[in-house]
Specification:
heterodimer, A: 351 residues, mainly alpha, MetI-like fold, two-stranded antiparallel ribbon, B: 324 residues, 2 domains, 14 helices, globular
Chain lengths: 351, 324
């Protein structure tokens, strides 16, 4: 709930204090006279844990993107196809995918039903990959949306101050005051029933755009506030004054002079925002307000799994593990990026 | 409390009321302009006739202009006469029924997560860089990466349903049986605390490490104070301020609806779960009431934290609104 720089509003995070500049001059990379970005790259390359985490996330992403390949060539089914009355060979014996008591088959460790089936006789491995595609896609797009909107609003508020600042800051306060999950669930349920009709744009009720939009809006204040604080401080600096003296328009100054200086904040935020967006999507889907069935996401899979947890706990465990693994890898990578770029930055996002 | 401080407090309270007003208008609009959200059609049953729908519309006043409906809704909210469209039950009574459950969950979890966070954060900072510190860091990161409803569902299944150590969800009132009350809350408290312990212990760890490098800590050591005294009186005291701030804000948020997932998974029938069930039926009055209730707690705790900060730090008062 706390803006990352509540106590240090105004002081741009990249400014070094005496202690840290001393410490950095001992850093061999610093002495080479590198720019801040290349310096960050060097420090990040030395952080093996962060790098491995980044690679783990990319592998997860890649395997989810390759979902259709697995579905077509290995499992030979689709994420939404039911196999309630089908049989599959286990140890050479034909076995019901879902037995007469409604208990779905467990992991076969073969191409078909690699991780078993769910209560509707759907292939879990296939749903896991397709669901991951939805979960990760929503997380990534929503986080980028948050960054875009939070950046513009924060810059406008911080650079123009005055009335623009009052209106934007107040709007941020309003979003902030909403109970996050309650707001998300309320919006998600209402939109899932009716869809959204915005003149030329019509969004269907089961479109992924709905959870993306909701999540992107909910997290705006987390980004807009620190950006505003930095813009407030940066606008007083000499290089901005110089740009003003050259006769640059204020909009141009805001986006060409101030923007590059808040870029490090955006980079620090991105992986952590994605991680939290993925978790929020799962929460919304768990409460029935995110991805709408029969489409899958890790959150909807857990929700469906919990209903059958007594007969088939793996339906709950597997998507949760994938979710935790991807969020964990992003969190560890994000911490590495933060340490490399801006060790003093405080980032905290709630889900 | 001088006059600058009083002015700050008044300004803060006024902006709080304005924010709450905006929240109420937004929630009202979301559910009234939504297509397919017409409450009259839903209330008329499966196969509604036009006359039935008209009659309901008239009876409940859905045919009046929106602002009239808004004002009436808010009047009902504050007079405690709000009636659910779906169950026809009094909304404030339902919230009052859920409140002790939500409060039991929030207060217990907040105490647990703060105690563990301080212990683990302090230990981690003192052992910074060693194996035990790294181990705790990994645990904390896993803790903040797990969805609370997932870990909650697994707890109910493995420790409740399967092992039978804990109850299979549900809630027993404290006045009925304090021991059972405690026993039913152990798992929900744990599930809800994990995330916060992870966050807070990390924040505390880095704050302690930062404070240890401050000049006044060096001074305290130089004047011959024992390490224990330096740690408790000088380092920990200052490092606690950020997480106590977070504590205030998060406690408000948890009462105000952030525990909706925990309540649902453990079937505690608290305020959050009431909201979740009402949302499924697009039942506007309870959604309105619970959102306002939640926003009220969030905004109040935000304002309290701000005012406490201003009381401690005069610079914030001068900045006024821009302090946030």
């Amino acid at each position: 709930m706390v803006p990352p720089s509540r106590d240090e509003a105004g002081s741009a995070g990249t400014e070094f204090t005496l202690d840290s500049s001393e410490q950095l001059s001992r850093d061999p990379a610093e002495r080479a006279g590198l720019g801040p970005w290349r310096l960050t790259g060097r420090r990040l390359r030395r952080d093996k844990v962060a790098l491995v985490s980044g690679v783990v996330f990319l592998l997860l992403l890649a395997s989810c993107l390759a979902a259709p390949l697995w579905a077509e060539h290995v499992a030979e089914t689709t994420p939404e196809e039911n196999h309630l009355s089908d049989q599959v060979l286990v140890d050479g014996k034909p076995t019901d995918v879902v037995d007469t008591l409604g208990k779905p088959i467990g992991p076969t460790w073969n191409g078909h039903f690699f991780l078993g089936a769910d209560g509707n006789g759907r292939d879990i491995m296939v749903r896991l990959l397709y669901g991951g595609r939805n979960s990760l896609l929503i997380g990534l797009v929503a986080a980028l949306g948050t960054i875009a909107m939070g950046l513009v609003l924060g810059l406008l508020a911080g650079y123009y101050r005055g009335r623009a600042d009052s209106v934007i800051s107040w709007a941020m306060d309003v979003i902030w005051a909403f109970p996050v999950i309650l707001l998300g669930v309320a919006l998600g349920t209402a939109l899932a029933l009716g869809g959204l009709d915005l003149g030329p744009i019509t969004i269907q009720g089961d479109s992924l755009a709905i959870p993306i939009l909701i999540i992107a809006i909910i997290y705006i204040p987390y980004l807009a506030r620190p950006v505003r604080g930095q813009a407030l401080a940066l606008r007083e600096r000499e290089f901005v004054e110089a740009a003003r003296a050259q006769g640059m328009g204020s909009l141009r100054i805001a986006f060409t002079e101030v923007l590059p200086n808040v870029a490090s904040t955006l980079v620090v935020f991105l992986p952590l925002l994605v991680a939290n967006a993925i978790l929020l999507e799962a929460s919304l889907s768990f409460l029935g307000a995110g991805v709408q069935p029969p489409a899958a996401s890790w959150g909807t899979m857990i929700a469906e799994g919990v209903e059958r947890i007594a007969t088939a706990p793996h339906l709950t465990i597997v998507p949760g593990l994938m979710l935790t693994l991807s969020v964990l890898s992003l969190n560890v990578f994000g911490e590495g990026v933060r340490d490399a770029l801006d060790p003093r930055a405080r980032v905290r996002i709630e889900h | 409390m001088n006059s600058a401080m009083a002015r700050f407090a008044v300004r803060r309270l006024l902006s709080m009321l304005l924010v709450l007003f905006a929240v109420s208008v937004l929630v009202f609009l979301i559910f009234n302009v939504m297509p397919n959200g017409d409450p009259a059609v839903r209330m008329a049953g499966k196969i509604p006739t036009e006359t039935q729908v008209e009659a309901i519309r008239e009876e409940w006043g859905f045919d009046e202009p929106l602002y009239v409906q808004y004002v009436r809704t808010m009047e009902q909210l504050f007079s405690g006469e709000m009636i659910s469209y779906a169950t026809r039950q009094n909304v404030s009574e339902e919230i009052w029924k859920g409140l002790p459950r939500t409060l039991s969950l929030a207060v217990g979890a907040a105490l647990i997560w703060m105690a563990f966070a301080i212990a683990l954060g302090l230990y981690s900072a003192l052992r910074a860089g060693r194996l035990s510190d790294r181990f705790l860091t990994v645990l904390a990161l896993i803790g903040i990466s797990m969805p609370v409803f997932w870990i909650g569902a697994l707890m109910v299944y493995y420790l409740g349903y399967k092992a039978g150590i804990f109850p299979n969800g549900g809630y027993v009132e404290f006045t009925v049986n304090p021991l059972e009350w405690l026993w039913h809350l152990v798992l929900p408290w744990t599930a809800l605390s994990i995330l916060f312990i992870g966050f807070y212990s990390r924040v505390l760890r880095s704050d302690i490490l930062e404070t240890m490098g401050e000049d006044y800590v060096r001074t305290a050591r130089a004047k011959g104070l024992s390490e224990r005294r330096v740690l408790l009186k000088h380092v920990l005291r200052n490092s606690l301020i950020p997480i106590v701030t977070l504590w205030g804000l998060d406690f408000g948020a948890v009462i105000g609806g952030a525990a909706i997932l925990t309540e649902t998974v453990f079937d505690l029938q608290g305020v959050g779960q009431y909201a979740a069930e009402s949302i499924k039926g697009l039942d506007l009055p309870p959604i309105m009431a619970v959102t306002m209730f939640g926003a009220f707690f969030i905004v109040t705790f935000n304002a309290l934290v701000d005012i406490a900060y201003a009381a401690l730090d005069p610079r914030i008062r001068l900045e006024g609104r821009s302090s946030r």
